[in-house]
């Protein structure tokens, strides 16, 4: 038996981890499986009984700056720790806690035109801390059929 092959094996045939589009908004996080297009919506508001790590975060939490980390009008993320907790919870509720998915992250629509590299880097770091194998940023308001096809085969 010869186990060597001259033909390339399609990478998507053996890939176990899913590709997930995460669309952020002020109050919700929408996860969409790119292959099946099945959607799951989770809250982007921290629960009142959330464990907070530092004194600064406790103070911010009391003044409700920390309750909605994606709702600030001038920056995509106000607190990266809170955003990480929300994304980790959403992935766990969706059933992806044991996989390392490829995450396509789309910031809130108001930031799609003028988001800075530092803000993109912060969002990318949050996705990697949550457990993403790879992170891509999507800076368009809606997915077109061409975009779906591209990410299904990526």
TrEMBL record:
Name recorded for this polypeptide: Rod shape-determining protein MreB
The species this protein was found in: Simonsiella muelleri ATCC 29453
């Amino acid at each position: 038996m010869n186990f060597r092959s001259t033909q390339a094996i399609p990478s998507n045939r053996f890939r176990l981890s899913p590709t997930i589009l995460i669309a952020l908004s002020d109050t919700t996080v929408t996860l969409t499986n790119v292959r099946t297009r099945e959607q799951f919506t989770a809250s982007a508001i921290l629960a009142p009984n959330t464990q907070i790590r530092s004194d600064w975060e406790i103070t911010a939490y009391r003044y409700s700056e920390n309750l909605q980390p994606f709702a600030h009008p001038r920056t995509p993320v106000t607190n990266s720790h809170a955003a990480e907790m929300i994304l980790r919870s959403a992935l766990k509720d969706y059933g992806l806690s044991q996989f390392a998915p490829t995450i396509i992250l789309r910031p809130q629509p108001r930031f799609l035109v003028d988001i800075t590299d530092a803000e993109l880097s912060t969002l990318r770091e949050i996705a990697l801390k949550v457990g993403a194998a790879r992170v891509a940023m999507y800076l368009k308001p809606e997915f077109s059929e061409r975009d779906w096809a591209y990410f299904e085969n990526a």
